[in-house]
């Protein structure tokens, strides 16, 4: 599966939603997650993310993010079309530790 990681938080560009062939993105207030059981590993979303937040879970060190994606995909509503990104998305691109401060 692919997973959404820290840099999505408060950037939330949602370009990923547009390209996913199986509509497996779920929406929190500040972030999206991928449902690991629904993702078919096509990989098309990874290069679409302007914040470079989407990674294959085969990359080392992503266990925490796999857990976050798995947990919240079943709590948050499905999102199938792109909305406007937050007006201040750019200001949050690349900030460290967003999960601790802004995850929602
Ligand atoms: Fe959707 Fe493909 Fe990205 Fe998985 S890898 S979330 S199926 S676009
Ligand atoms: Fe987040 Fe990137 Fe999608 S910022 S909403 S994973 S396009």
From TrEMBL:
One of its GO terms (molecular function) is 4 iron, 4 sulfur cluster binding. Keywords: 3Fe-4S, 4Fe-4S, Electron transport, Iron, Iron-sulfur, Metal-binding, Repeat, Transport. InterPro entries: 4Fe4S_Fe-S-bd (IPR017896), 4Fe4S_Fe_S_CS (IPR017900), 7Fe_ferredoxin (IPR000813), Fd_C (IPR022569), FdxA (IPR054829), RnfB_subfamily (IPR050294). Residues 1-29, 30-59 form the 4Fe-4S ferredoxin-type domain. Pfam families: DUF3470, Fer4. It comes from the Bacteria. Its cofactor is [3Fe-4S] cluster; [4Fe-4S] cluster. Ferredoxins are iron-sulfur proteins that transfer electrons in a wide variety of metabolic reactions. This is Ferredoxin.
């Amino acid at each position: 599966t692919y997973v959404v990681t820290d840099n999505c938080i408060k950037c939330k560009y949602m370009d990923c939603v547009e390209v996913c062939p199986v509509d497996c993105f779920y929406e929190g207030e500040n972030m999206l997650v991928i449902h690991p059981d629904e993702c078919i590993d096509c990989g098309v979303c990874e290069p679409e993310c302007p914040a470079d937040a989407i990674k294959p879970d085969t990359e080392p060190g992503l266990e925490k993010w796999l857990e976050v994606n798995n947990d919240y995909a079943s709590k948050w509503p499905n999102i199938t079309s792109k909305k406007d990104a937050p007006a201040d998305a750019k200001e949050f691109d690349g900030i460290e530790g967003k999960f601790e401060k802004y995850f929602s």
